[in-house]
Write a structure and sequence with these properties.
mainly alpha, 5 helices
């Protein structure tokens, strides 16, 4: 589900309301619109995640998780571990939390607006950009491990 079509509507409404004002009002509204889009995207993701939790409670043996991939909300449906799945537990891949080792430095190059958005997301989550990027990579690896695991 592409979230931009919903957040762009919010921004357009804000700009339309400011159109009657002077240039300063329009400039301020444009800046607020950009900030509101990022905030609205996170609020939509949180609402979708809460909705996925409600759906998971009603599903027998499955869970629904929502994650953000760029500006798109993606839903994953997974089979929950059931009693008697011991054989599956034995072949389960380790989670990133289970893996320890020496820390290594990585240089990451990205376009400026992507870096700015990542910094905003990190700030919203109350962590440093480095921590946020590390968590994003770990989450992507966990998702990949889940997809590679045969059911």
């Amino acid at each position: 589900m592409e979230l931009n079509k919903y957040t762009a509507s919010l921004r357009a409404d804000l700009l339309a309301a400011a159109a009657l004002g002077d240039e300063h009002t329009r400039t301020t509204a444009d800046a607020l619109g950009t900030a509101a889009q990022a905030s609205a995207r996170l609020m939509l993701l949180e609402a979708l995640s809460d909705f996925a939790d409600e759906i998971s409670e009603q599903l027998d043996g499955h869970t629904v998780h929502v994650r953000l991939a760029g500006t798109e909300a993606v839903a994953d449906v997974n089979r929950a571990a059931m009693p008697g799945d011991a054989a599956e537990e034995e072949t389960a891949y380790p989670t990133m939390d289970d893996v320890t080792g020496e820390m290594r430095r990585v240089t990451l190059r990205m376009v400026e607006h992507v870096k700015e958005r990542a910094e905003e997301a990190a700030s919203t989550n109350g962590v440093s950009l480095n921590s946020w990027l590390s968590q994003a990579v770990q989450g992507a690896l966990r998702d990949q491990m889940r997809k590679e695991r045969p059911y």
